[in-house]
Amino acid sequence: MVRHAGRGDIAAVAEWNAAMAWETEQKRLDMQVLTRGVTAILGEPRRGFYLIAEREGRAVGCLMVTYEWSDWRNGDFWWIQSVYVIPEARRGGVFRALYEDVARRAKEAGAVGLRLYVETENQRAQSTYRQLGMEQCHYFMYEQML
What we know:
146 residues, alpha+beta, Aminopeptidase, 4 helices, 5 strands, 37% helix, 27% strand, globular, GNAT_dom, Acyl_CoA_acyltransferase, transferase, acyltransferase
């Protein structure tokens, strides 16, 4: 089952985000900042939302969706971010269920597409995204932290 995250999910989502940052980039995140960040999106739906996947009544994964306006396409791209599936539920269709739910919601909302970014070394995730019909873009990503 896939559902919207609520306030009762804040601690789990924050813990999962911290685990994902460590597993994928060996980055330690400040839990206070992270918890405030998770809480902020739940309080401001214009920023996006979290979805929680449950199996047998137990939360086993999540992702966050944020929005990017495209003037070229006169519509929103939905960005999939902060994907995490607990280790014992991996390779069991949890991300597929989350992805299919996001795609359905995006179509219903009139979004023009789905996007996500992935670590260049994360071949397993890249394979999963290709299997779901996503294609690698020709853009590089740049950033400057402020």
